[in-house]
Prior knowledge:
Immunoglobulin-like; six-stranded mixed beta sheet; 4 domains; mainly beta; 338 residues; 0% helix; 23 strands; single chain
Amino acid sequence: MPYVIYDNDANDLDNTAGNISVTVYFNEECNHTLEWWSVDYVGNEGEHNSTYFMVDNTPPNISKEYGTPYYKNTTGAEYITSLTPIYINATDNRSAPCIVGSVHVNVSIYSFLTEQWTYHEWHNWSDDAIINKTIYLPEECKHWINITAWDDLNNTVWLNQTVYVDNTPPNISKEYGTPYYKNTTGAEYITSLTPIYINATDNRSAPCIVGSVHVNVSIYSFLTEQWTYHEWHNWSDDAIINKTIYLPEECKHWINITAWDDLNNTVWLNQTVYVDNTPPIATVDAISPYCQEINETNPLTITVTAIDYTEPCVSGVKNLNLPVSRLKRDIGFANISL
């Protein structure tokens, strides 16, 4: 489209008669050819001049994507771990020669835990104008990620986001109520009436925790040769699960407790416990002869046996109660064998 600027018209920046100065802007992008010449007042036409150039007003495109593990809660907050890759991509969205052919990226990261900035910067001066990089965040808790991309014409774009890093699994604990017994070797014994308290919770405060906890309790009974499973979930910020279970079968059990959050930070607690619902058996050997003279030189011998069947499923005999009633208080000679 031709434009004509006349001496001292509205587009002439030089008010001196016979001189013309003009500034031209190009709003359209990509290829342009500018041709210009001048004509004096008597029609003499000067030499024609031309130049070829390209206009690039468009900044690079930038994107940021999280790998796994990754979790986004209902409020939109995003959580990752220090093992989660963060993919940074910067590129021009058009083809040469309409792009300036360069892209530069600065990633500035602020850690609220260390109160320090970390900087990454990359440059590409080729026509493909692409930068693909992967970064990781080593510190836990809140981070600002500020991504700036620009080309050599200083067309600039920004992408600023907040992300939370949670590397810490929940805490889990298991406690036995009563009755409960632990022998000298460390083996633990309960009954089917003994409550087993399962607790899982995160040991930190929001917003640095992902705000979820999941618990699986897998129990193997050696008596039935069967697995029993319990599973509970909590997606709230308090991230607490408190449950009570019981073991109905006797004998040896494996209790395998696994707790994890929505970033798959996982912790295990595996223990063996023995369930003993059966009382010991106590027997008294026959007294022979049943009627006999008892004195200091001929005491009455009574043999009592108490047995708890069968190791390792029994806790063992704790004590034997043996009350002795004498029909005649002046006769008290007896040997008792246990």
